[in-house]
Amino acid sequence: MKIQDIKTYIVDFYRANWVFVKIFTDAGISGVGEATLDFKEKAVKGAVEDLGRYLIGKDPFRVKYHYHRMYRDAFWRGGPVLMSALSGVESCLLDIKAKALGVPVYDLLGGRVRDEVPVYANGWFSGAKTPQEFAIKAQDAIDSGFKAIKWDPFGSSYMTISNSELTSALNCIAAVKDVTGQKIDIIIEGHGRFNVPTAINIAKRIEEFDPKWFEEPVPPSPYALRQVRKQSPVRIATGERLHDLQSFIDLFDNEAVDYVQPDISHVGGLINSLAIAELANQYYIPFAPHNPNGPIATAANLQLAACSPNFDVLEIMRSSVPWRKEIVDETIDFKDGYIKIPTKPGLGIDIHEEELTKHPYREHDLRHYNGMLTDIRPPKMIDVF
Predict the structure, then answer these.
(1) Less CB within 10 Å around the terminal CB: N or C of the chain?
(2) Low-confidence spans in the chain with pLDDT less than 70
(3) Active-site residue among 66, 290, 359, 368?
């Protein structure tokens, strides 16, 4: 079997663009991957095309060999663009190999240790502006079966936060907590937006709400995270903006994290993600992958979670664009806060290429600091779960 072609598709999903990769072989077996890197989509597409020059004509079964050759020969090794491109390509190769062998991808990674995966909801709050609106949407998420929800209540704050802005954030958290009580976990997202003293202050102020964790309270600096964690009364999670193994080693060695959150689309794919999970396990740190991207990333994360003993919970975007069901062949078995691990060969998902072209690349800007953070879905959005 030889690799015959590689294609990249950039697909608008309202707040940014998904980047899908598909590799074709002369045996008629194809594989899919996701290399979504918000607001750098065209750069990733170019990187995948560069990798494609090496891959054409190669044996797709030699996944690790090709991965390390492509990483080495990039010369400027690492960085989010290259690592995201490698993530998409590696997923395709594993998908092809597993399909050819008639097994799920998790069987290539040691086999599954669980049959279902606990998940928490992101995106449940789309369009909410007031504490009351957040509370209503939180109740809807509970009614849908979720056992945990995450959101960023901090508006457009950056590095510091005023007393009035912090009061607004705390009022929002209180309104949601009134609804959730002890029935489900709440998770507070920071998006790496605060400096150290501000993050410590916020961590102390949110303690009364008993969040499962405070996510990315500061930018991804092991030193800054360590300072926050030492004085924080709540648990700290981070990892989504790290894209190499050494960065995670630094995170653990600095005792800077309670939950580790690598993004499978940015750290080089499933094999590197599993290595991070196994490294975290040596420190007895739970593994909770960052996953706000597209359907192929979710499918890959389910395979990863299946074979990670220290896996804790997976992030899921509850709502999506209405064309999601048209562009992917996706089966999700969700019930009572869990998703069943698919047992189909490969990743268990495919794309409909002709439908992808109906939703081409669109320019989007970051919403985190302009007061539009919750406007992440179109008016006619659908619930995925």
Answers:
(1) N
(2) none
(3) 290
